[in-house]
Automatic annotation (TrEMBL), chain A:
Transmembrane segments: 12-30, 68-92, 104-124, 136-159, 180-201, 237-258
PANTHER family found in the cross-reference section: ABC TRANSPORTER PERMEASE PROTEIN (PTHR43879), GLUCOSE IMPORT SYSTEM PERMEASE PROTEIN GLCU (PTHR43879:SF1)
Organism: Geobacillus zalihae
Localization, UniProt: Cell membrane; Membrane
Keywords, ordered alphabetically: Membrane, Transmembrane, Transmembrane helix, Transport
SUPFAM superfamilies: MetI-like
GO terms for cellular component: plasma membrane
Signal peptide start and end residues: none
Topological category with respect to the lipid bilayer: Multi-pass membrane protein
GO BP, one annotated term: transmembrane transport
Name of the protein in its database record: Carbohydrate ABC transporter permease
InterPro entries membership: MetI-like, MetI-like_sf
Listed PROSITE patterns: ABC_TM1
UniProt superkingdom: Bacteria
Automatic annotation (TrEMBL), chain B:
Species of origin: Geobacillus zalihae
High-level lineage: Bacteria, Bacillati, Bacillota, Bacilli, Bacillales
Protein name: Sugar ABC transporter permease
Chain ranges passing through the membrane: 29-50, 93-114, 126-146, 183-212, 233-258, 292-316
One CC-aspect GO term: plasma membrane
Alphabetically ordered keywords of this record: Cell membrane, Membrane, Transmembrane, Transmembrane helix, Transport
Pfam families: BPD_transp_1 (PF00528)
């Protein structure tokens, strides 16, 4: 489309117009969150704050800090465990294939597409039974289990790119299952771990359904607390927007600094083979 | 090498007696042992629990105390005669169609735009992609305000004579009576679709962009040599080549849309006359706020089936095609 004289300016105009659409919510979020209370009126919604007032961040932080901490306690172990499990599964399903391995893999994969509503009632009964209902470890367990399909998929595709000859020659040299994993696969897996960890971190941090059904009040992760904050009528808009920004900050930072790996994860999880 | 050969002979030979025995070393057992916990967990927590939910959906458990007595299809019959569930089905259908159509059109447009070697391309790309890193809850909270009828985008639109009620609008466009509900496009859904499109378009852009980058330059050059205009090049050659990606995008977006819960719960809730209600929200409220477990389970099974229609053929075909 680079032929005619007007084409280039038109393309830039389009790109800028679309950027405005994508950035508009961010502008409103940031501008509102920095406004003093008396400027948070419906009529002044689109105006910049006259002075920068951080007090809504202080209020939002006060309300959300415990839940923010809950989310960290949830997301760190859940991400590490599910990445490790995915690496092992991906290793077995790509380099130690047995008869029916592909069918088994497809059956595992189905688990990442199901609506979790369809397992939620038994899951909660089960968690109550074993005493993990309304606990952070309970949520960690849930995210590790239902993270198996996606992490296995990502690592399986990642390991498929490592040539089988390397494994075969290691076998001839007498290396076994564990040694090959430890000395050949793991050193080549750094990128794989980064991609999977970023993907799981983002998804678990942002997840809402498990969080809102498995935990109550003081055990709730950040997204449930944010939803409660915005659901209550008495909380001002500037505080809500500050809260939304605080809740979004960790995944936004990850995206800003490691966006390349985030997109790789997205493609690895959607396009198979 | 030996193992590889054995596998091929296994497939090639029809007579089992000729088959060489596959060598299962201790390492193979070890590999299986490492995989086993995950397999057990998936079978228990995915397939087992789906079966359990199916069982609950056929029971009389519609109070706090579990009642496992068999109810047959009672809960399903109730749902399909229920005003709210009928509205949910309409909303899900409308939402899914609008959402997928918008994501595909916008996704292709932006991907092609990013493929024009613009200056600042990576900045534009990051601007289109970043909403994917956000939670649907954050998106819901922000767009709830942007589409608030007394403020938000209306402050721009009012001077133009447009005064939308957005997600509080109870009008159904093109409505005709169907069961207990008015079938058509609920105006309020459009507001939710915009928010969902804002969040998920980046996904399609990323996939189309990967597809565009995989098309060799020779294809473009050849078309240009033959005198194709840029428009013809994209419309007649590039877009058809991207069709397999469109299939993937449709399936991924469909499964997200059919089970959507958090965005709508955070942004609008069920809405007046359930104009923005979806099965995900209904299931959550009736099960965990109303203790109608059997009804909730039935909704969940309907959701699962609707997703499975898209996902199962996709998984089977990608298994045959891929790897």
């Amino acid at each position: 489309m680079a032929r005619s004289v007007w084409a280039r300016p038109f393309l830039y105009a389009l790109a800028i117009a679309m950027s405005v659409f994508f950035l508009m919510p961010v502008y409103v979020m940031v501008a509102t969150s920095l406004k003093p209370l008396d400027e948070v009126t419906l009529a002044d919604m689109w105006k910049l704050p006259s002075t920068i007032d951080w007090s809504s961040y202080a209020t939002a932080f006060d309300k959300l800090a415990p839940n923010f901490w809950n989310s960290i306690l949830l997301v760190v172990p859940a991400t590490l465990l599910s990445a490790l499990l995915g690496a092992l599964n991906g290793y077995v399903l790509s380099k130690w294939k047995f008869k029916g391995a592909d069918t088994l893999f497809t059956l595992i994969l189905f688990g990442m597409f199901i609506p979790y509503q369809s397992i939620l009632i038994p899951l909660i009964q089960f968690l109550r039974e074993i005493g993990l209902y309304n606990t952070i470890p309970g949520l960690v367990f849930v995210h590790v289990v239902y993270g198996i399909p996606i992490t296995t998929l990502m690592f399986r595709n990642f390991y498929a790119a490592i040539p089988d000859e390397m494994i075969e020659s290691a076998k001839i040299d007498g290396a076994g299952f564990v040694r090959i994993f430890r000395y050949i696969m793991l050193p080549l897996s750094i990128t794989g771990f980064v991609v999977v960890a970023i993907w799981q971190f983002t998804n678990i941090w942002n997840e809402f359904l498990f969080a809102v059904t498995i935990t109550t009040s003081d055990k709730q992760p950040i997204m449930v607390a944010l939803q409660n904050l915005s659901g209550s009528q008495i909380v001002q808009w500037n505080v809500q927007m500050a809260g939304a920004l605080l809740a979004a900050l960790p995944t936004l930072l990850v995206y800003i600094f490691l966006g390349k790996y985030f997109v790789r994860g997205l493609l690895a999880g959607s396009v198979k083979g | 090498m030996e193992t590889v050969n054995v596998t091929t002979t296994e497939k090639a030979t029809a007579v089992p007696a000729v088959r060489k025995k596959r060598k299962w070393t201790a390492d193979h057992w070890l590999a299986a042992a490492f995989l086993a916990p995950s397999v057990v967990l998936i079978f228990l927590f995915v397939y087992g629990f789906i079966g359990w939910t199916g069982y609950v959906s056929l029971s009389n458990w519609n109070s706090l105390v579990p009642d496992w007595s068999f109810a047959g299809l009672k809960n399903y019959l109730y749902l399909f005669h229920d005003f709210r569930f009928q509205a949910d089905l309409r909303n899900t259908l409308v939402f899914t169609v609008l959402f997928i159509a918008a994501v595909i059109v916008l996704g292709q447009l932006l991907a092609i735009l990013l493929d024009q070697k613009l200056r600042g391309e990576s900045l534009f790309r990051n601007i289109f992609f970043f909403p994917m890193a956000l939670s649907f809850v954050v998106t819901g909270v922000v767009w709830q305000w942007l589409f608030n009828p007394s403020t938000g985008v209306n402050l721009f639109l009012k001077p133009l004579g447009l005064d939308g009620k957005w997600y509080t609008d109870t009008n159904i466009l093109g409505g005709f009576h169907w069961g207990k509900i008015e079938f058509g496009v609920p105006v309020a859904i459009v507001a939710v679709v915009v928010a969902a499109v804002w969040q998920m378009t980046g996904f399609a852009v990323a996939m189309y962009l990967a597809g565009l980058r995989a098309i060799p330059d020779e294809v473009r050059e050849a078309a240009r040599m033959d005198g194709a205009t840029e428009f013809q090049l994209y419309w007649k050659i590039i877009l058809p080549l991207l069709r397999p990606i469109t299939v993937s995008v449709i399936i991924i977006m469909a499964h997200i849309s059919l089970k959507i819960f958090d965005l709508i719960y955070a942004m609008t809730g069920p809405g007046a006359n359930f104009v923005t209600d979806v099965p995900g929200v209904y299931m959550f409220e009736t099960t965990f706020r109303g203790n109608y477990y059997a009804n909730g389970a039935a909704i969940a099974i309907v959701m699962l089936l609707s997703v499975a229609i898209f996902i199962v053929p996709y998984l089977i075909s990608s298994r045959k095609g891929g790897s």
